[in-house]
User: What shape does this take?
Amino acid sequence: MKYAEVVVNTPLRRQPKAAPRDYPPEEATAYRPLSMTFHYSIPPHLRDEVALGQLVWVPFGPRRLQGVIMGFDDTAPVEETRDLHEIADPQPVLLPPQIELARWISNYYLAPLIDCVFLMLPPGVEQRVELVVQLNPDVPIPDGLTPKQRAVVQLLQREGAMKLRQVGRALRMSGWRSVVDQLVRKGVVIKRSELETPRVRPKMERVARLLVELDETLRDQLQRAPRQRAIIEYLAEQGEAPVAEVYARVGGSSATLSVLVEKGLIAIEEQEVWRDPLEGRTFVPTVPPRLTPDQEAAWQEIEGGIRDQGSGTRVYLL
Assistant: This one.
């Protein structure tokens, strides 16, 4: 197992007639726009860690992009390959049956493989790399800069480090990318890669947890604070409960909980909550309609085709 076959999350999502200009030259001869997989050498320090279906970081031309390991090979279709950079997550994000399904969808529907792979990944897994530029603090600004180069330098002096796309929006001048590259070659500007901020953040909720044992002494102490006592009794039954649930079941307010926290009776903590897209929704099973003899005959033909291709769902046109 010397090479990993990786599907790379590249913006090249259309099917051009020839390899794009920024396509890695080491695999241009094996260019397959729909399959979109590349062979990367597995460096020695990663050979015991790589696994099928893992999310990895790989070099792609001058960039560093995310990809998913779709398979392993002892040989590569090209003479020279580049090394995997890093494993983004040791836990595989795809199982072998999902990888097979993604390949089948790509082949059957002539869809880019990367799109078929990301159909099966939860939101937030995908992370892109942003190019960031800033002035090199160790290099003085030279004389003789062109007006466009001077405009870029003045912008970075004013704003500090900026995402490359922000530079383009701020300058609104033609050829700004080549101007930035000229300054990079002069050593005046530094260009680096930076991970985008994840678009999906963990969902958190506040949870109340009882810190003491409820006994008669504590009940007597809270005799004149019925709301506080009700909260303590509820938490004694539950152990801990979301703050929103405490409000709904017992009542009280944030001020009531704050008093209990100050007394050292409860603690308020934040915990991550798994999102459930079907939470609060109910589904009533439907009974399929009775088919006419002609419909039943047509369905038998369709069902036979589905058995040949895979599983399917009945669709009724009424």
